[in-house]
Amino acid sequence: MTDTRGSARRDGEAPVRYAPGTPCWVSLMVHGPDRARMFYEALFGWEFRPGPQQLGPYVRALLDGCEVAGIGLLSPDQHLPVAWTPYFASADVDRTAETVRSCGGTIGVGPLDTDGAGRLAIGSDPSGAVFGIWQASAHRGQAVTGVPGAPAWNELTTFESERVAKFYAAVFGYTEEPEISADLDYVTLSVESRPVAGIHGVGNGLLRDRGPHWTTYFTVADVDDTVDHVLHLGGQILKRPHDSAHGRVATATDPEGARFALVQTPR
């Protein structure tokens, strides 16, 4: 895990439509959605309303009436990890899915329509990290960012950044911006000169039981207080709060083991 590098949009409502390649939604699939809703409601102040049911029971999380994330039931026949999954915007999910396959990735779910809200697919990159693709219709995606309880950034932890960065650039048209450092393997992915996601290569430091994975950062008002709240609610802390050039950050898991990160941006 490295420092958070910003977000596609810091304050206010989301744009009318996300540019292709921009992270536009995050979704958590768990075995116990009721427990997950209680955890995140207490942690972030989320409220919930029903969402598309094509993949099973699913709710959208709201902050002050603005949609920020989704939580659904992970059924036994869905061979997906219990994890927060970022979705990247696409103008044509079927074409993007074909590009994923032609570039060495896989598509495990879809493409399929979701109650008129849009069209989605879930795939994995050549290293095995799972991500989603979203073609918006009625549901544009995340409606707010830059406020406590909303997603701020998505970062891929993998073995090495160069090869997998080329995969995402080929699929979504990103501009790659490698970190110039002898001791840090990091690539920032940008859309229209705007940083939207990061790839951190950790070599043999990657946990074999976890494998390559995406981590979503959520904005909080106070990382240290939120960490205490995570523990009180039955979650775990994987990396204690520490200061970085981009704010104070920590890494945690919810009671079912889904990883997420917390970021308190400098005032």
The CATH topology of the largest domain is what?
2,3-Dihydroxybiphenyl 1,2-Dioxygenase, domain 1
Helix count from the secondary structure assignment: 4
Shape estimate: globular
* SSE order: EHEEEEHEEEEHEEEEHEEE
From the alpha carbons, calculate the radius of gyration and give it in angstroms: 17 Å
Please give the CATH architecture of the largest domain.
Roll
Q: Going by CATH, what is the homologous superfamily of the largest domain?
A: 2,3-Dihydroxybiphenyl 1,2-Dioxygenase, domain 1
Describe this structure in a few short sentences.
The protein has helices at residues 33-44, 93-102, 161-172, 223-232; strands spanning 23-30, 47-50, 58-63, 66-73, 83-89, 106-113, 118-124, 130-136, 151-158, 175-178, 185-191, 194-201, 213-219, 236-244, 247-253, 259-264. With 267 residues, the protein is α+β, with helices and mostly antiparallel strands.
Structure description:
The protein contains 4 helices and 16 strands. It has 267 residues and is an alpha+beta fold. The chain has 2 domains: 23-136, 2,3-Dihydroxybiphenyl 1,2-Dioxygenase, domain 1 (Roll); 151-264, Roll (2,3-Dihydroxybiphenyl 1,2-Dioxygenase, domain 1). β6 and β7 (118-124) form a beta hairpin. It is globular, with a radius of gyration of 17 Å.
Secondary structure topology:
Layout: E1 23-30, H1 33-44, E2 47-50, E3 58-63, E4 66-73, E5 83-89, H2 93-102, E6 106-113, E7 118-124, E8 130-136, E9 151-158, H3 161-172, E10 175-178, E11 185-191, E12 194-201, E13 213-219, H4 223-232, E14 236-244, E15 247-253, E16 259-264
Parallel strand pairs: 1-4, 5-8, 9-12, 13-16
Antiparallel strand pairs: 1-5, 2-3, 3-4, 6-7, 7-8, 9-13, 10-11, 11-12, 14-15, 15-16
